[in-house]
Design goal:
Layout (H helix, E strand, L loop, with lengths): L6 H11 L5 H7 L2 H5 L1 H10 L5 H13 L4 H11 L3 H10 L5 H12 L9 H17 L5 H18 L3 H16 L4 H16 L17
Organism: Gracilibacillus oryzae
Pfam families: DUF1266 (PF06889)
Protein name: DUF1266 domain-containing protein
Length: 215
């Protein structure tokens, strides 16, 4: 018997994908239009150079197993093991024109705030988008998509305790990838993410982060 994706799991996936969309649109019209819009998914896969099922599965596997978080994980492990004075010395020797300086400096200053899951949130949001696009455009069967959703959501639950940690990890991950740690960037994103988390119609206020994934 084909395993279908329960409505609650669809809601969980699309709630996570809110971070990849315009908040004004989602908060105004709700979740389900996002799930239905094939044009959004076609454009998304085209931008990622995904043209067939093989491309899609390779993209999914890369996000799940390695993703863009690998350089962050390496830098975080290195910096977190250093005494404070060693960190400061190394940062002083780096050129401030180098993106690596901004990334390492960001980790140094935000280490107390970065959740244990690091920036996995960015890769898993990408993973779930590709999986959902694959299902909507016919590259994945309902059963294949269900297994991808379950795997992605489980990985997020194992690495973040709640929606707040997930959002912090996602926001920091986007900063890390852009190497933009300006106060203005942080201010704009904080306002955006606060809106998503606290708005009455936000899906994150309706979905239990630790919901069962047994389906």
């Amino acid at each position: 018997m084909t395993r279908k994706v329960p409505k609650e799991i669809k809601q969980f996936v699309t709630a996570i994908l809110v971070l990849n969309s315009r908040k004004e649109y989602i908060l105004a019209v709700g979740l389900w239009p996002y799930w239905r819009h094939k044009k959004l998914f076609r454009n998304g896969l085209k931008a990622r150079k995904i043209e067939n099922k093989q491309d899609l599965e390779e993209g999914l596997d890369w996000c799940f197993e390695k993703g863009g978080r690998s350089d962050f994980d390496t830098a975080y492990s290195r910096i977190s093991l250093m005494p404070m004075d060693s960190r400061q010395f190394i940062l002083k020797t780096m050129s401030q024109e180098d993106d690596n300086f901004h990334k390492c400096n960001g980790i140094h200053h935000e280490m107390h705030r970065i959740p244990l899951g690091g920036i996995l949130a960015v890769d898993m949001t990408e993973y779930l988008f590709i999986a959902l696009a694959g299902q909507r455009l016919g590259y994945l069967t309902e059963e294949e998509a269900a297994e991808r959703f379950r795997s992605g959501l489980k990985k997020l639950q194992e690495n973040y305790r709640d929606w707040n940690e997930f959002i912090v990890g996602y926001n920091y991950g986007m900063q890390h990838h852009s190497a933009n740690f300006s106060n203005e960037y942080a201010r704009i994103n904080k306002r955006y993410l606060r809106t998503i988390l606290l708005a009455k119609r936000s899906p994150m206020n309706k979905i239990n982060w630790q919901m069962s994934l047994d389906f």
